[in-house]
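User: Show me an example of a complex going from sequences to structure tokens.

Assistant: Sure. Here are the input components:
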Amino acid sequence: MQNPSPQMQRCIEACLKCYQACFGTAMNHCLESGGQHTEPAHFRLMIACSEICRTSAHFMLMNSEHHTHVCRECAEICEQCANDCERIGDMDACVSACRDCAAECRKMAG
Amino acid sequence: MQNPSPQMQRCIEACLKCYQACFGTAMNHCLESGGQHTEPAHFRLMIACSEICRTSAHFMLMNSEHHTHVCRECAEICEQCANDCERIGDMDACVSACRDCAAECRKMAG
Amino acid sequence: MQNPSPQMQRCIEACLKCYQACFGTAMNHCLESGGQHTEPAHFRLMIACSEICRTSAHFMLMNSEHHTHVCRECAEICEQCANDCERIGDMDACVSACRDCAAECRKMAG
Amino acid sequence: MQNPSPQMQRCIEACLKCYQACFGTAMNHCLESGGQHTEPAHFRLMIACSEICRTSAHFMLMNSEHHTHVCRECAEICEQCANDCERIGDMDACVSACRDCAAECRKMAG
């Protein structure tokens, strides 16, 4: 297999780490905490973030030229999710994973 | 459940129909036919198309405001996939599902 | 494309319908209703159900011989999800989609 | 977020690594090599393997009790995929990722 470039590989890993952080936090910490954590707009954003990260990784793994657009959208959603997790608090791992992923995705978006 | 609007519901259905047509055709007809059908650029496009359709449906089902951007990307990939399937031939169901999906996604993209 | 058998096609459709009902209801009705609807065990079951339905459809679409095991697991999760939605109430579309999907998946599980 | 147990965390990582290896190899090395690599049974198995790995990780991340059954199925498909990649040759990273994932999934399957 012709391996992805080191930069793409870092982005794939950032996407899959962010997917894990957001989906795992939403389905455990958020559901168990309730209150602001299950407020529809916040919870949807975390699930949307985890899904676009999963999709971005998929597009990069298959070397689709369309990964640039998907990564651009991923960066935008991750940034918004980081801000919302920061606002609510108590989700530092998500904030950090989202910020890292947004930064890597912006590089791939060209 | 507050149902999606009729227009969004039509788009969700077009996405899931296109997902089925492209993924099913790639993994059966294309793999079994070989030749142009498994040429990397074509095969990747079909898998990319099926994946973005799956993701678009997911974003609309959860009522994420970000569905507009995902639908715009979906319309673009579906249009390209329709053209490539037409060029190779023998994949009328894909061409038609991709064209329908592109049209519905463009309406959602606003 | 050699089409799936009519029975498999019905199962694919039942899976994708159940995916839509469970994921859409969880991310809209359940999040907006709160209370029992966002109780972790219930909400996780709805998301698990939507995910295994998505995966079962994927395995059947690609004609993987392993669809029999995935469909068996899908039938089990759908049945449990139908019962839990019935217990909480107010989710008739999910109950019905889960029961249909469980019935179709049991036929595919052989 | 109550973190997954160290054993579950190792399994999630093994699943996501195997997903990357199988999907990336199928969509690049296999498509570009052709011949045995795009023989339908082999190619489908690699895609099935990548998909069940993605689903297993999803079930563990959400702490669904059903992860035990999904992990059992994942172990079986990974083992079969490892053997098939070994038979064809030239896919050592897949063989190794599949074997690791099968071993971790068997521990989770109980």
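The lines above are the inputs; the final block is the predicted structure for all four components together. The domain at 6-109 of chain D is CATH 1.20.1270.360 (Substrate Binding Domain Of Dnak; Chain:A; Domain 2).
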